[in-house]
Structures are given as structure tokens and as C-alpha cells.
Amino acid sequence: MTTAPTTNPQIISAPDGTPMYVLIPYDEYMTSRERPDHEVTLPHEVVMLAVVEQKGIVRAWREHLGLTQAEIARRMDVTQSAVDQLERPDRALRFSTRKRLAEAMGIAVEQLQSLNED
């Protein structure tokens, strides 16, 4: 078994020298997203849509990302009607469904956990 060589991340700084971005190999990025010890974060807009406007977490993320139900359906190879059902606020989603949705939206599966789940 061979392992990928360790790389030094590239730091991209603002004109004043303040670090702004870190460039790492894609494989390292994906591995970091899969670690169970990373903190799950939600953008403020997603929380507001899900809690204040009482939209389901799936719909909140979709709207935040500027995606349509049709686009999510195409990415998941399901119907738009199926996506509509997945967006219901009271809908409990199986892990496998959350995983497919997360992949379709380009987010971590943990970010689709309902805000009222422990």
C-alpha cells in the first residue's frame, strides 16, 4: 500500500500579509471533511431559514445554495416531486438519503442533521 506524499499547504495572503486562504490537495480536503472530530457548522442564513421561517433543513440549504428542486433532482436522479417530499420540515431522513442529498448539494452529511435532533 502506498501513501500519498505529505504536502505543505500553500497560504494565500491579502495584500497586507494577512492569511486569507489555504490551498491543499483535494484528497486531503475530502479526508478532512470525513473526519468525525470536525465541528459541524451551519451558515447563519440556513439556521434562519430552518428555525425562523420553519423550513426544513434540506430546503434551507437548497435555498441558501441557490439551487432549484429540479437541479437537486437531476443530481440525485430522482423526480422533482421526490425532492419536494424530502424538503418537508417534519420529514425524518434516513442516513443514506441525507448522504445522497449532501453529495448533490456539495455539503457535509452532518450539515443536514435536523436542528431539533440531538
What would you note in describing this structure?
The protein is mainly alpha-helical. The protein has a domain at 44-112: lambda repressor-like DNA-binding domains (434 Repressor (Amino-terminal Domain), Orthogonal Bundle), CATH 1.10.260.40. It has 6 helices and 2 strands; from the N terminus they run E-E-H-H-H-H-H-H. It has helices spanning 26-34, 44-52, 57-65, 69-76, 80-86, 95-105; strands spanning 10-13, 19-23. Strands 1-2 form a two-stranded antiparallel ribbon. Strand 1 (10-13) and strand 2 form a beta hairpin. It starts with 9 loop residues before the first strand and ends in a 13-residue tail after the last helix.
Radius of gyration: 17 Å
Mean pLDDT across the residues is 84
CATH architecture of the domain at 44-112: Orthogonal Bundle
Number of helices: 6
The CATH first-level class of the domain at 44-112 comes to Mainly Alpha
Structural class: mainly alpha
Stated plainly, the CATH topology of the domain at 44-112 is called 434 Repressor (Amino-terminal Domain)
β-strand percent reads 5-15%
Order of helices and strands: EEHHHHHH
- Morphology: elongated
CATH superfamily of the domain at 44-112: lambda repressor-like DNA-binding domains
Key attributes of the depicted protein:
two-stranded antiparallel sheet, elongated, mainly alpha, 434 Repressor (Amino-terminal Domain), single chain, 45% helix, 8% strand, 6 helices, 118 residues
Provide a brief overview of the structure.
45% of the residues lie in helices and 8% in strands. The protein has 118 residues and is mainly alpha-helical.
